[in-house]
Specification:
Layout lengths: L7 H15 L9 H13 L47 E2 H17 L5 E8 L4 H4 L2 E2 L2 E2 L13 E8 L9 H12 L5 E2 L8 E2 L10 E4 L13 E2 L2 H5 L3 H7 L3 H5 L15 H4 L1
Parallel strand pairs: 6-7
Antiparallel strand pairs: 1-9, 2-5, 3-4, 5-8, 7-8
């Protein structure tokens, strides 16, 4: 489908946002008040992109754009002729960032009775050098071969109740099911395309929530969907985007001035 198409999924997402976040009747219709609420949401649930940078000390935090492991010295054969394939994407995929924001909202507000709270990130970006064992410019750990953390995955830790350490076992299973699957529409495993995916405990995620976009199609993995700065992670104001696109009726229907007031010319005294 076209990226700017208003689909059934779009309508369902708007209805959920209206009901859960805005606390209004879920109409599925877009108005200025919805744009204001989206802008409010992004500032109430901020994320620190710097905390997601690769810790290898060999890249700038988001890889070097390598498409295989040769430069990092990881090979499938003893003669070093067959590197592993895996693309270092240019930043963190914005679906992961907004998915985490949504998880923060649900755990703090809508599902606060579950008593889960965000503790920290286990892992964000991992480039091929990090897979080779590099941390802070030196090899400090053994090699690994995972490729979905190259901009397409986050490992998130939560704690439960008054605990000070990350939860594990059935508690992690519960937050996966009750927040990430039920609220965010994520899937356990990787059977469906273009859906957030979760590792299960059996696949290794025993004390964290691993969420990735591994099964997104190539059209949804182009550079525009990856954040490399805090500004791109946060995104532009929805109200300003609507104004730039000339959707003034949409903006005005929420009681927002349809245009930005013109800048006042400086007085003669101010020009001195």
């Amino acid at each position: 489908s076209k990226l700017d198409e208003f689909t059934t999924q779009t309508e369902q997402a708007i209805k959920q946002f209206q009901s859960d976040y805005m606390g209004i009747s879920a109409t599925g219709k877009v108005c200025g008040s919805l744009l204001l609420a989206l802008d409010d949401f992004r500032f109430k649930y901020p994320l620190n992109l710097a905390a997601m940078k690769c810790p290898c000390g060999k890249c700038d935090g988001f890889g070097k754009g390598y498409t295989d492991s040769e430069a990092a010295g990881i090979f499938l054969d003893a003669k070093h002729t067959k590197p592993r394939k895996g693309t270092e994407y240019p930043g963190m995929h914005r679906s992961l960032l907004w998915g985490l924001r949504a998880a923060l909202f649900y755990t703090r507000v809508k599902d606060k009775d579950l008593t889960y709270s965000f503790l920290g990130l286990s892992s964000g970006y991992r480039c091929w050098y990090n897979n080779a064992g590099y941390r802070n410019g030196h090899i400090t750990s053994t090699k690994r071969n995972t490729t979905n953390h190259m901009g397409n995955a986050l490992d998130v830790q939560f704690k439960k109740g008054s605990q000070s350490t990350r939860c594990a076992g059935s508690d992690v299973d519960a937050i996966r099911e009750k927040v990430f699957v039920k609220r965010l529409g994520a899937q356990l495993g990787w059977t469906e395309r273009n859906t957030l995916s979760l590792e299960t405990a059996a696949e290794g995620a025993t004390s964290w929530v691993h969420v990735d976009v591994r099964e997104y199609e190539a059209q949804y993995k182009i550079p525009r969907y990856y954040a490399v700065t805090q500004a791109t992670a946060d995104g532009d104001s929805m109200v300003e985007i609507a104004r730039r696109e000339g959707r003034l009726a949409l903006v005005a229907c929420g009681g927002i001035p349809p245009t930005t007031p013109p800048a006042r010319a400086p007085s003669a005294d101010e020009r001195k």
